[in-house]
UniProtKB/TrEMBL annotation:
ABC transporter domain boundaries: 4-238
Keyword Cell division on entry: no
One Pfam match: ABC_tran
Record's protein name: Amino acid ABC transporter ATP-binding protein, PAAT family (TC 3.A.1.3.-)
InterPro entries, alphabetized: AAA+_ATPase (IPR003593), ABC_ATPase_HisP-typ (IPR030679), ABC_transporter-like_ATP-bd (IPR003439), ABC_transporter-like_CS (IPR017871), MetN_ABC_transporter-like (IPR050086), P-loop_NTPase (IPR027417)
Gene Ontology MF term list: ABC-type amino acid transporter activity; ATP binding; ATP hydrolysis activity
Gene3D superfamilies: P-loop containing nucleotide triphosphate hydrolases
Family: Belongs to the ABC transporter superfamily.
Coiled-coil segments: none
Keywords: ATP-binding, Nucleotide-binding, Transport
Length: 242
């Protein structure tokens, strides 16, 4: 099981500090939900975990190896740590299946013949067997987001990061995407989610972290954080969103 450890992670954009000393440990099989207002640093934190953004200070280690040091090759890390974004980022000229096959074929050099049955199985698992040969503009927003999750899982990652993946969806489509996350949860996938879905976080998270101005102001079990938050800022945020 993978272990991802962030120690005193700091990140600024110009003179704007976005992450200010983040300490976080993600262990195998955990689901960690990041909550907080827009601009609190949730998305940047996920992008730093995946090495899409270099950090300014601190360390990020994956199974004891410092992956944040300058010059470290990010590609093997991104194979182990998958990420799904708010926008689906599917190639419009390719079918759902071809979108999902592209990265593992290029990165792993696996033949289409070998790969297609395994990826088709992922489509079936998430209720998309009859949509594999459709193009993105023939799919609903919820279906496109599920295809994006299948595409990430096709790389066989050990950790999955999800960045507000339901926030661009119509309310009636949110449930079908959250059901995919529930299934991954039961299968033991290690996950870190930035989310506004408080009910989902309360139901399934092992740990909930409240971010405020680039810091993890408070973290704990869903029962503790939602039930008896210690920080005034946490209480104020939850009173607005619950």
């Amino acid at each position: 099981m993978p272990t991802l450890v962030l120690n005193n992670v700091q990140k600024s954009f110009g003179t704007n500090p976005v992450l200010q000393g983040i300490d976080l440990t993600v262990t195998g099989g955990q689901m960690i939900c990041l909550i907080g207002a827009s601009g609190s640093g949730k998305s940047t934190l996920l992008r730093c975990m995946n090495l899409l953004e270099p950090i300014d200070d601190g360390t990020i280690t994956l199974d004891g190896v410092d992956i944040s040091e300058p010059g470290y090759d990010p590609q093997p890390v991104r194979q182990r740590i998958g990420m799904v974004f708010q926008s689906y980022n599917l190639f419009p000229h390719m079918t759902a299946l071809d979108n999902a096959l592209l990265a593992p074929r290029r990165v792993h050099g696996t033949s289409r013949t070998e790969l297609e049955p395994k990826v088709a199985e992922l489509f079936a698992r998430f209720g998309l067997a009859d949509r594999m040969h459709h193009y993105p503009d023939q799919l609903s927003g919820g279906q496109q987001q599920r295809v994006a999750i299948v595409r990430a899982l096709a790389m066989k990652p050990q950790i999955m990061l999800f960045d507000e993946i339901t926030s661009a969806l119509d309310p009636e489509l949110v449930g079908e995407v959250l059901d995919v996350l529930r299934q991954l949860r039961t299968e033991g996938m290690t996950m870190v989610l930035a989310t506004h879905e408080m009910g989902f976080a309360r139901e399934l998270a092992d740990t909930v972290c409240f971010l405020d101005r680039g810091r993890i102001l408070e973290s704990g079990s869903p029962e503790q954080l939602f039930g008896t938050p210690e920080q005034e800022r946490t209480r104020a945020f939850l009173s607005r969103v619950l």
